[in-house]
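Quick one: structure for this chain?
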Amino acid sequence: MEEWIIDINGVITKELAESIRQGPILDDTGLRMLTEVTVACIDGLKIQVFSNEHPPPHFRVTHSGESNDYSIRDCKPLHGDGLKKYYRNIREWHRKYKNDLIKAWNNNRPSDCPVGVYRD
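Got it. Here's what it folds into:
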């Protein structure tokens, strides 16, 4: 199956980059720990939707050589512990931009894609 990769760019990507730049969110109160190592790791953040892909509808976050796919529905990680220390950052970002991810998923589907459009 040919991959149709849609990069998610612009303001919504900048917000997750800034959240990661501020350091991992350590708990649900928003407590963070910022270290020099964390600041040095911000380069290379990428958010993608693969529009000719397998179910469930999902997006990928790549950062500093690590990546993971997350369900668009509930932001659950699909492949283990990749980016685990940034999961709260990604989850907070997902809450705000879920509709943008759904639009990217739905608006870029090939007509013969077996997954189809996203529906809650």
